[in-house]
Amino acid sequence: xxxxxxxxxxxxxxxxxxxxxxxxxxxxxxxxxxxxxxxxxxxxxxxxxxxxxxxxxxxxxxxxxxxxxxxxxxxxxxxxxxxxxxxxxxxxxxxxxxxxxxxxxxxxxxxxxxxxxxxxxxxxxxxxxxxxxxxxxxxxxxxxxxxxxxxxxxxxxxxxxxxxxxxxxxxxxxxxxxxxxxxxxxxxxxxxxxxxxxxxxxxxxxxxxxxxxxxxxxxxxxxxxxxxxxxxxxxxxxxxxxxxxxxxxxxxxxxxxxxxxxxxxxxxxxxxxxxxxxxxxxxxxxxxxxxxxxxxxxxxxxxxxxxxxxxxxxxxxxxxxxxxxxxxxxxxxxxxxxxxxxxxxxxxxxxxxxxxxxxxxxxxxxxxxxxxxxxxxxxxxxxxxxxxxxxxxxxxxxxxxxxxxxxxxxxxxxxxxxxxxxxxxxxxxxxxxxxxxxxxxxxxxxxxxxxxxxxxxxxxxxxxxxxxxxxxxxxxxxxxxxxxxxxxxxxxxxxxxxxxxxxxxxxxxxxxxxxxxxxxxxxxxxxxxxx
Length: 531
Prior knowledge:
The chain is an alpha/beta fold and 531 residues long. It is 52% helix and 8% strand. The longest helix is centred in the N-terminal third of the chain and has 32 residues, at 95-126.
């Protein structure tokens, strides 16, 4: 199937908004004329457009809210245009009959407003000043979250609960029988009242611990656990890989490690680990770490919030970066803010010296690159069927220097030459952000991956049977079971904190064994070298 032309794709993005706008104009015209078929058609089209917006275009819902055309305004407009249309269609002969319908609609929207206020209050009681993973938080009395439809999905809730009222009004418009509208509005009122009652019950039953209780509990946990070393990380939604690459190294340091995060969304982006993870969004809470036993924090990335932790004088800070290259970011002057800069080796030390950005040589410490520990040193020519070659080009960077990455100018030639050698097994590992700045890098990366997929399809040699694929699927499922966290669809941050309590004994060893088994199954599922 051929993709749509760019103009049609752009038009399709805004189609629900356009249909919604046209439906309101048509509704108003049908109410004034009046015209029954146009009124029913326009209202129905508007409902479908609303559903499409919330299902596929949530960004457009936010844009409409910014111009004061939020879902409440739109639904009120739709329903009261229907009322006007009904009055016009009946020729004002039964105005007294429709007065209870108007009052019923007002009651429904009043209950919805009250429910929304209750939902905000419930969210407030469940928004804790900090979040944890791999920590026993049972003392905080965290309960399962109410349904997301009641708590967080204000627009879909109004659409769903108001649908019986709108449908009843449409049937009444077509049949001139007010009892259908009355039944629909009564059902909508009952739904709104039920949701309000459920949220009020959440407020009066046993609540989670208050903010003060949570902070007291956190101080107690710090005093009992007495962390010795940790990793501090703050970043955007796509930057979690920068912290994840240091998880194994941090776990291998011994002592009592801890991970300190600043963004709530990052809690579920940090990979599988048994290390306690603490998310502290507010600076005032973060400064409580000064009273802890924590003596060292490593920093895999610079961020705007880094300066907030650097003000704690009792903690030493070491910048370890999330990779090294000859890009300017690998000798950033901001590194002066840390007590030490830990680098891979002499080349990085020389890079800082040549950059002359104020980093003293005695503050640069060569620690190697722990992530490369599984790679064995050279011990003579390869003896297996293949020579494994790793091609791991770095990111294009922000400054537009074509020398930052080899992907654009040389990547395809490198990969093509390696694939042409039947004795080479190529591992291609591009930087996770490849193409995020330079579209040429993204296009080259896509072409390289296409070359590799094509080479895999044409690879000769004995192919494993279906049992190899089945074994890989089994190992994949086992690894996912050990490393992936599963939550109820309605779970919020507090409930996830409750579920992700102290890990089971031996989980880290089980994950390591499952990972090794998956790797063996992966290579066994590929074609073997021809003899």
